[in-house]
Amino acid sequence: MVDSKCNDILASHGKEYRIFLPDEIQKRRTLLFKILKALELNSSTQDDHLIAAMHYILDNEKKRALFLPNEVELPFITNFWQKRVYSGGSKNPKVNRKVLESCILEFVSKGLNCWCNNFSVN
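User: That's the sequence. What structure does it adopt?
Assistant: Structure tokens below.
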């Protein structure tokens, strides 16, 4: 446990804030899930992997287990998130629920920021 925290602190010196997201998101999880439901987001392209992942975490909102079954495709996640979301090896990969929620919420946030930055009122 201490070793893990030390590694997190060392990594933060590289300005890697995402290692702290799971703990921070869990503090506001109920509110963030309410916002996700209220937004009723859809994909603007045929690629709906992020929307499917968002629905997956919403469908599993009541679960408190550390791991979820690997039942969602995540081709959009970065190497940083892949290393943290998946565990259990390639034969029986498990998905870390808290890390997955943080990952999906970060990507939704980035997508909304992109949309908002391109939206203009005439």
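The radius of gyration is 15 Å.
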